[in-house]
């Protein structure tokens, strides 16, 4: 088991180093001078030179990369030119919104999708299966921003149960903050639940056709025991893969929904930084999100070994 963990951690660290080189190179291939791009074409040459000195752009590329990577290791992401604050402070504020939102959305989608996928697989070819997967198909096809607007109209404008947008901050209390995240979480959870339900059904259908499932049934085990004790655990590998991908997406890819609900999250921060040409923020946040994706994939790989011990010696 320790060898398996060591190999996965080493692979993750290698991927992280290569990803950091790619993210750093993105700044170098931007047409023109990055400092002038950030300041605008009306900036004077003296202003450009001062910013180049602050960003270390006058140094050789190797030293620039090592200085930037060393700052990342120290959790020093640099200073935002637009906001005039440390990037780590910006990230901390936005992560306090995006991380709970991602966790709530993932929890909602999992609670709905896995039982729905198991239910559809246990009734393969019947009306219940067709209705369940038809609903999942509609959920996949429905744009989350349109569903978000529908939720705002029903629950915020018509019923007035939750706020239509904005985030009061956790300092205002846990319940007011959670109320502001309920509708965005539902808007994000719908398409993710639809995808996860279809993957769960497909994995369960494949497992239910295996010989050991027929043997368990022949021994007199109940249908519930066969589904939950034997089939589900062996069907979890693709389900865990999708869960990992969805969490990474929910953490980094919620720009549209965050803008619809006016939430100050990471996705909106990246969007604003790109619009304002704040390359320091863009580069640092992208690298942070890449690291989060690599970490999630590592945890998913480790969960494979916990679910199926046979994989520990094969990876």
TrEMBL record:
InterPro entries in UniProt: BPD_transp_1_N (IPR045621), MetI-like (IPR000515), MetI-like_sf (IPR035906)
Cell compartments where the protein resides: Cell membrane
Residues that span the membrane, as ranges: 97-120, 141-161, 181-199, 235-261, 281-307
Coiled coil: none
Top-level taxonomic group: Bacteria
Alphabetical keyword list: Cell membrane, Membrane, Transmembrane, Transmembrane helix, Transport
Membrane topology (UniProt): Multi-pass membrane protein
Keyword presence, Membrane: yes
GO cellular component, one term: plasma membrane
Keyword Membrane: yes
Major subcellular location class: membrane
Cited SUPFAM superfamilies: MetI-like
ABC transmembrane type-1 domain segment(s): 95-300
Name of one Pfam family that matches: BPD_transp_1
One Gene Ontology molecular-function label: dipeptide transmembrane transporter activity
Protein family per UniProt: Belongs to the binding-protein-dependent transport system permease family.
Protein name: ABC transporter permease
Upper lineage: Bacteria, Pseudomonadati, Pseudomonadota, Alphaproteobacteria, Hyphomicrobiales
């Amino acid at each position: 088991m320790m060898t398996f963990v060591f190999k996965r951690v080493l692979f993750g660290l290698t991927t992280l180093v290569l990803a950091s080189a790619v993210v750093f190179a993105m700044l170098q291939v931007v047409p023109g001078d990055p400092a002038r791009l950030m300041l605008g074409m009306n900036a004077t040459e003296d202003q450009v030179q001062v910013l180049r000195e602050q960003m270390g752009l006058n140094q050789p590329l190797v030293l620039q990369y090592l200085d930037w990577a060393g700052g990342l290791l120290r959790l020093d992401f640099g200073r935002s030119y637009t906001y005039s604050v440390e990037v780590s402070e910006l990230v901390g504020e936005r992560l306090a919104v995006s991380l709970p939102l991602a966790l709530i959305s993932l929890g909602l989608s999992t609670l709905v999708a896995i039982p729905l996928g198991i239910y559809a697989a246990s009734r393969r070819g019947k009306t219940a299966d067709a209705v369940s997967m038809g609903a999942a198909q509609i959920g996949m096809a429905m744009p989350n921003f349109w569903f978000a607007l529908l939720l705002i109209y029903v629950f915020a404008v018509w019923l007035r149960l939750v706020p239509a947008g904005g985030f009061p901050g956790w300092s205002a209390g846990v319940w007011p903050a959670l109320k502001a995240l309920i509708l965005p979480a539902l808007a994000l959870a719908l398409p993710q639940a639809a995808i996860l339900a279809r993957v769960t059904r497909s994995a369960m259908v494949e497992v239910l056709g295996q010989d050991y499932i027929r043997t368990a049934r022949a021994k007199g085990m109940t249908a519930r025991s066969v589904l939950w004790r034997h089939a589900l655990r062996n069907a979890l590998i693709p389900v865990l893969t999708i869960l990992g991908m969805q969490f990474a997406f929910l953490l980094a890819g919620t720009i549209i929904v965050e803008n619809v609900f006016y939430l100050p999250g990471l996705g909106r921060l990246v969007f604003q930084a790109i619009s304002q040409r704040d390359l320091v923020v863009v580069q640092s946040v992208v690298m942070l999100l890449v690291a989060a994706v690599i970490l999630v994939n590592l945890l998913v790989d480790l969960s494979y070994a916990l679910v199926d011990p046979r994989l520990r010696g094969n990876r």
